[in-house]
Amino acid sequence: MTIDATARAHPNMALVKYWGKRDEQIMLPSTGSLSMTLDEFPTTTTVQLREDHGPDVLELNGAVAQGEPLRRVTRFLDLVRERAGSEARAVVRSRNEVPTGAGLASSASGFAALATAASAVYELPQDTRSLSRLARRGSGSACRSIIDRMAVWHAGEDDATSFAEQIEAPELAMVVVVVDAGGKKVSSREAMRLTAATSPFAAAWRASTARTLEEMLAACREGDVERIGELAETNALRMHAVIQSTVPSVRYLRGASVGVFDAIEQLRADGLQAWGTADAGPNVVAITRPADAAAVADALAGHGEVRVVRPGPGARLVDERVA
Ligand code: 2P0
């Protein structure tokens, strides 16, 4: 019997964004999405079964967590227990190596690592597809962090068909520009609901993203970095446009973020190819070729702390203790 298991997973950065759910209960997205798993900022999570009958315990970066983070982990473990036919509670210890305020969400790496460690401990299927489907139930984008390097998340029709899998793509690099280390006021989940409920552009966003995903898959197959960059930048700005069009308006990009998009456009005019993207926060990420990453990082260093990231590994077990 497995006593405890430790898994590690990394965040991912979407080139075609997930923004909206078709079914919040089982976390079906309204459109597919596509991302690069990063080689930095891992989350390492240990799941240990409790031998007494105490409740689930969550420790985040060494401190005991309560409230919503604990409820979210418990709900996730309830699903795992239901599938495993187990009543055993667990102690979950999770550590994020995201530098404070790097603006890279830890929910994707967090639930990818948790799904992987929990599947080992509760003896659920551990193939990539099963792990991706399970991670999705914790946080949508976590299904992509299960996957090595580049992932497409198929929107799917039901729980069985909504999962991420690896795709071939040309070698990319990204430059993360941290313009603001503060937390966000409106969670992605809340802002997605607000978008569906109040934006007149929500349907256009869904239709255009579905088309963009098809074009992006073709650009990845063809190894066309320029097309990948253009599509990613347009898709990110469309996502921010639909988010800003909510009532009340949610604005994740700040003046400084727009300044980085301007600087990236200027780099292109000067002959250095890079394209901007941004998630549900103010920080901007430049997508570029590996050979240009250092020059792009130098050029953007005046706008905030910069860090070059590359394609990284999917979630995996790093330790397992068996009695
Ligand atoms: C993405 N984001 O594709 C998009 C782009 C943020 C902006 O996925 O409600 O934490 O847990 O499924 O996955 C962030 O949302 O939301 C996200 P839930 P999630 O990466």
Automatic annotation (TrEMBL):
Family: Belongs to the diphosphomevalonate decarboxylase family.
Keyword Transport: no
Gene3D superfamilies (UniProt xref): 3.30.230.10, GHMP kinase, C-terminal domain (3.30.70.890)
GO terms classed as biological process: isopentenyl diphosphate biosynthetic process, mevalonate pathway
Keywords of the record: ATP-binding, Lipid biosynthesis, Lipid metabolism, Lyase, Nucleotide-binding
Protein name: diphosphomevalonate decarboxylase
The Diphosphomevalonate decarboxylase-like N-terminal domain, residue ranges: 9-164
GO cellular component, one term: cytosol
MF terms in GO: ATP binding; diphosphomevalonate decarboxylase activity
Highest taxon of the lineage: Bacteria
UniProt cross-references to InterPro entries, sorted A to Z: GHMP_kinase_C_sf (IPR036554), Mev_decarb (IPR005935), Mev_diP_decarb (IPR029765), MVD-like_N (IPR053859), Mvd1_C (IPR041431), Ribosomal_Su5_D2-typ_SF (IPR020568), Ribsml_uS5_D2-typ_fold_subgr (IPR014721)
Ranges where the Mvd1 C-terminal domain occurs: 174-300
A Pfam match: MDD_C
Species whose genome carries this gene: Brachybacterium phenoliresistens
EC number: 4.1.1.33
SUPFAM superfamilies on file: GHMP Kinase, C-terminal domain, Ribosomal protein S5 domain 2-like
Enzyme kind, highest EC tier: lyase
